[in-house]
Structure formats: C-alpha cells, structure tokens
Design a protein that fits this description.
7-stranded mixed beta sheet; binds nicotinamide-adenine-dinucleotide; 2 domains; 15 helices; Aldehyde Dehydrogenase, Chain A, domain 1
C-alpha cells in the first residue's frame, strides 16, 4: 500500500481510507493509494512552511542547485525502475515511459543549473537613491498534476518551483501517482530536507480543492482540464493567490501543398497517437491545402491502418487509455461522428493479446470534419485525428484559430515567408514549423493562450512565475 509523503515520511490518510490503483492494460487493481483529506493537506502545508522557515529558505541558490543535481543523477540511476512504475500505472508503452523518466532527469538537471542564474536588477533612479529588484520565492507552492505525464509535469512544475526556492505540496492525479511518490523518496535520500517536497494523494474534489483553498499556499500551478482550471482559479481568486494554468488544446497541424510529406507524415501520426492521444499538445486537427488533401489522406490512411494497440509492456505504437471513463469518452465522440456522417479513412488494430478488460482504442483518422462539429472543437484526449481541407492561407489561419484553445500549432511548408506569416497569425503559445514539439526540450517555455491557460512553465521563463519581484529603494543621501 502507498502512503502520502509528508515531511520525508510515509503517512496514512487521516480519514483511514484508500483508493485502488488500476492497471489500464487489464483493468485490474494491483495496489492502493491514500485517499487524502483536507487535514492531510494542512499537515503537508505546515511541513512545507516549517521547512521553508528553518532549512530550505536558508540555503543558498547554489546549495539548492547542488541538491537538484544530485536528484537528477539519482533519478537517472533509477530511470528503469521509475519507467516501470509509470508504465503500469498509466499504461505507457515502454519507450514512452523511459522517455518520461529521462525527461524528469533533464528537468532537474536544467533547473539545478538555473538556481543561481536567477538575478535581479539595479535600476537607474533619482540622485540619492539606490534601487534594486530581488526575485523571491512565493513561499509554499501547490502543484496539481494530471495523469497523462506525471513525471514530466512534476519535473517542469516542481523542478522550477524548487529552483526558485519554494517548498512544494503536490497533489498528483488519483489515476497516476506512484512514480511521484517514489521520486519524493529519492529526493529525501539525496538530502532534500523534510518538508521541501510533500505529496498528498487522493481525489481532486477533496485533496485538490483543499490545496487550492488552503491559506498557506502562496501560488498554485495547475495542469489539467479547462473545467477544473476554472474552478481552481475561482477558488484562488478568493484570496488573490496567483495561479499558472496549463490546460488543454485542440492543436492544428497545418499542411500546405509544398510540404515535405516524407518528413511530415510520421510526425503527424506520432503527434496524435503518442500516449494514446492523451497529450495536451496532441496534434488533433489536420488542416490540409485542398490540392494535397486526397493524396495526403491516402498515404496517412495507410500509416493509420498499420498502427498496433496493445498492453503497455508489449511496447506497441499505442497502449491503453487511462481508465474506462476515458475510453467511454472517446467512444462517445466516435459515435457522434458516425451519426453526423463523418467519414472514417482508416483505423489501427487492437492486437489479440490485449485483455478485454483493458481500456483500448484503435487510432482513428476521420475526414471532412465540419469545423463547427465537436470533433473539430473539443478535446477528445484519445487517438482520433480530424482532417479537413482549406483553400488558402487565410482560411488556414481562420480554421487554426477557430477553437477556444490556443496551445500548440504545427505548420508544414517550404515557403519561408509563409512560415513566418503563419507563425505570427496563429494564436497559440507555441508554433512549430516543419516539426512538432521540437523534441520536447525542457529549455523551451511552454503554455497556452485562451482556454489553454496562462502563465508559462519549462525553460527559464518558469522561474519568473515561481517568484515574486521585490523592489528595494534605499535613500542614501
Ligand atoms: P483534470 O482536470 O480532471 O485533473 C487534473 C488534476 O486536477 C488531477 O490531479 C485531479 O485530481 C485534479 N482535480 C480534479 N478536480 C479538482 C478540483 N475540483 N479541485 C482541484 N483539483 C482537482 O484533468 P485530467 O483528466 O487529469 O487531465 C487531462 C487534462 O489535462 C486535459 O484537458 C489535458 O489537455 C490537460 N493537460 C494539459 C497540459 C498542459 O500543459 N497544457 C498537460 C497535460 C494535461
């Protein structure tokens, strides 16, 4: 049985209740986590505050950096173990689970190096004054994390917050928290003081809500759905607590007739099937210049038909979805598509070895999706790609910008002028030209506009969000 991790100690939930951990590959329970309460959140916030006031807050930036370096090395040593934990918990194919563990290594490495590079400024001002700015940690930060990439999102969110000098209280998703509980233990082993990293598991409406409401939380980083993002922001607004929101997307891949299809097609496929399409930045809409539409769909259909879906440990193109309700959600979208007469171009195959009780969904390519249909507007969070044609650049921009979201966009064209025009005209946090995601580098700031959220994580930019600026003016005569 798993315990909360508070003050470098495993702790049971105050209410004495637990939740089952389900393996998405076969739908069977195999472990238990604590079902946390507001009281548990309070204990974690107190532990974090105590640590901040006594040990953590007194370390120099270089000392914090050394600890993060040690943690990066420790996670690297345990990468296989962590990947195996996350694989079973989330249903990730082996390659994806390993990539996520290595991303965590890299986040800690990057933020280790960044700790002592976060400088203030001196400002020229009136005669007789010295004016300077300090970047100070908020204090105790709350981190609400989804199930799709627990290790990666912990790395970018908690890594940045620790680097900036905050103590953290983390609420992972009830559907996937085992890897993070292990990372917290590893952090204690390399010398993180008790209370610097605390993890309280349980339901969002119980633990997440209590965290967002807790007066001892000085900043909230939330990654998850737009619906819960709204709730968190409303609750935080009551006490003017700053929030960073990383929400969903309905990201377009815009392909012009002059694109290099050999380069584009595998990337377009990967961008919608990676992690079973349960990726905030999934390229879930395919906008194609009309003259290329039929030949592109021909080739893409062939690639989709070859995709294989099965248990995480088989390491196929796609693993199971996270849970039964997510599978049902995808089925509902596909049944709506059928009722609306939206044609299916191709579907991948679920292998015979996949247990019937697992949450499998074959990747599906749909064409001629009307731009106003919910398949072109809403986040499916499954391996479903909605294709549609456009006539020219203006229509491509209108379609690309025609949803409530604005997270990521891919643009495929060899025309340099068009690359820049599209990058400027698309409203999103990231535009990738002739690639999608740039390999996910931890150095690259990431976040959204519109209903995809606000604030940035990853890269150096995150450190500004995890600090507050203090202006100090000294009159020296
Ligand atoms: P979710 O919003 O249901 O849950 C996210 C987290 O919030 C979980 O830990 C959950 O327990 C918690 N939560 C739920 N209700 C809460 C409440 N009332 N108060 C506080 N916390 C609460 O999202 P999910 O289903 O876990 O993840 C999928 C969503 O996350 C998708 O919309 C996806 O696009 C988004 N996402 C965004 C990014 C990004 O960087 N933009 C990254 C990953 C996932």
């Amino acid at each position: 049985m798993q315990l909360h991790y508070i003050g470098n100690t495993g702790v049971r939930a105050s209410g004495g209740r637990t939740l089952p951990v389900i393996d998405p590959s076969d739908g069977q329970p195999y472990d238990e986590i604590q079902r946390g309460t507001a009281e548990d959140v309070d204990a974690a916030v107190r532990a974090a505050r105590q640590c901040l006031d006594t040990v953590w807050g007194r370390l120099s930036a270089a000392e914090r950096g050394r600890l993060l370096h040690k943690l990066s090395a420790k996670v690297a040593e345990h990468a296989e173990e962590l990947a195996a934990i996350e694989q079973r918990d989330c249903g990730k194919p082996t390659r994806q689970a390993k990539a996520d563990a290595l991303a965590l290594v890299r986040y800690f490495e990057f933020y280790a190096g960044a700790c002592d590079k976060l400088h203030g400024e001196t400002l020229p001002y009136q005669d007789g004054y010295a004016v300077l700015t300090w970047r100070e940690p908020h204090g105790v930060t709350g981190h609400v994390i989804p199930w799709n990439y627990p290790m990666q999102i912990f790395g970018r969110s908690v890594g940045g917050a620790l680097a900036a000098g905050n103590a953290c209280v983390v609420k992972p998703s009830e559907d996937a928290c085992l890897s993070l509980l292990r990372v917290a233990e590893l952090a204690a082993e390399v010398g993180f003081p008790a209370g610097a990293i605390n993890i309280v598991t349980g339901y969002g409406h119980e633990v997440g809500d209590a965290l967002a409401r807790h007066p001892g939380i000085d900043h909230i980083s939330f990654t998850g759905s737009p619906r819960v993002g709204t709730l968190i922001q409303q609750v935080a607004a009551e006490r003017h607590c700053p929030v960073t929101l990383e929400l969903g997307g309905k990201s377009p891949q815009v392909v012009f007739a002059d694109a290099d299809l050999d380069a584009a097609l595998p990337v377009i496929v990967n961008a919608i099937v990676q992690n079973g399409g349960q990726t905030c930045s999934a390229g879930s809409r395919l906008l194609v210049e009309r003259s290329l539409y039929e030949p592109l769909l021909d080739r893409l259909g062939g690639l989709f038909a070859n995709l294989r879906v099965g248990p995480a440990a088989m390491d196929l193109d796609v693993g199971p979805l996270i849970r039964a309700s997510q599978q049902q959600r995808v089925w509902d979208f596909l049944s709506d598509a059928q009722h609306a007469g939206i044609p299916m171009v191709a579907q991948g195959q679920i292998v015979d070895e996949a247990p019937e009780t697992g949450y499998y969904q074959a990747p599906t390519l749909l064409r001629d999706v009307p731009p106003a249909h919910r398949l072109a507007q809403e986040e499916v969070f499954g391996p479903v790609l909605a294709a549609m044609a456009f006539a020219d650049e203006d229509e491509a921009v209108a379609l690309a910008n025609g949803t409530q979201f604005g997270l990521v966009a891919g643009v495929w064209t060899r025309d340099g002028g068009r690359q820049l025009r599209m990058a400027r005209r698309i409203r999103s946090g990231q535009v990738f030209v002739n690639n999608y995601g740039a390999g996910g580098g931890v150095e690259l700031p990431f976040g959204g506009v519109k209903s995809s959220g606000h604030g940035r994580e990853k890269g150096f930019e995150a450190l500004y969000a995890f600090t507050t600026l203090k202006t100090v003016a000294i009159r020296h005569g």
